[in-house]
């Protein structure tokens, strides 16, 4: 298993975003994680395509774009053009998930699928060989700074077993309440990529915090 960290810019300082982008650039982080919320699929609104474009101009690492929106299939090429390297759509928002994953790949991006805390891992059995990444939400999506759901460890283990069973190359990403209190256990359970926002950007030394999350 890899040990990767993707700082979530949802928790960055938007009055000085270039500073926080540069912090991530200089750190051991692997990706930038960008949460796109529409106020419909989740009860919050974050930022959209112009911010992704702005981040892309300064980012020296790939953009992992997480769409928490209804009808994500409508915006595949728009986010590709904005600079997304990996596009992540929710299982719960994608009635034609197989087609959506194909379209993301056809647009030249890696494709991820996200599942909410209540969505059974087993529902991914018929898509797991197609996707490059599965994001397990360890909080209910919509807001940063929430408490980690302990049952996530078991869900990561379930997903790792499914990936192994199907000989899938998919990475496992975990997002929500991730910190050094649970990072080691998440890697041990089978996670490859940890998303962390508030824990990184509200720490005294974000670069050091990212390094600690990878250990």
From TrEMBL:
- Which parts of the sequence bind substrate? 8, 66, 142-145, 175-177, 197-198
Q: Which InterPro entries match?
A: Aldolase_TIM, Ribul_P_3_epim, Ribul_P_3_epim-like, RibuloseP-bd_barrel
Sorted UniProt keywords: Carbohydrate metabolism, Cobalt, Isomerase, Manganese, Metal-binding, Zinc
A GO molecular-function term, please?
D-ribulose-phosphate 3-epimerase activity
* UniProt keyword rRNA-binding present: no
What residues form the catalytic site here? 35 (proton acceptor), 175 (proton donor)
Q: In which pathway does it act?
A: Carbohydrate degradation
Pfam families in alphabetical order: Ribul_P_3_epim
Q: Where does a divalent metal cation bind?
A: 33, 35, 66, 175
Return the EC number.
5.1.3.1
This entry's comment on the bound cofactor is: Binds 1 divalent metal cation per subunit.
Q: Which reaction does it catalyse?
A: D-ribulose 5-phosphate = D-xylulose 5-phosphate
Q: Which GO terms describe its biological process?
A: pentose catabolic process; pentose-phosphate shunt
Instruction: Specify the domain of life of the species encoding this protein.
Output: Bacteria
Cofactors: Zn(2+); a divalent metal cation; Co(2+); Fe(2+)
Can you tell me which family this protein belongs to? Answer: Belongs to the ribulose-phosphate 3-epimerase family.
Sorted alphabetically, which NCBIfam families does this protein's record hold? PRK05581.1-4, rpe
What is the documented function of this protein? Catalyzes the reversible epimerization of D-ribulose 5-phosphate to D-xylulose 5-phosphate.
- Name this protein carries in UniProt: Ribulose-phosphate 3-epimerase
The species this protein belongs to is Marinilabilia salmonicolor
The organism's lineage is:
Bacteria, Pseudomonadati, Bacteroidota, Bacteroidia, Marinilabiliales
* Gene (name only): rpe
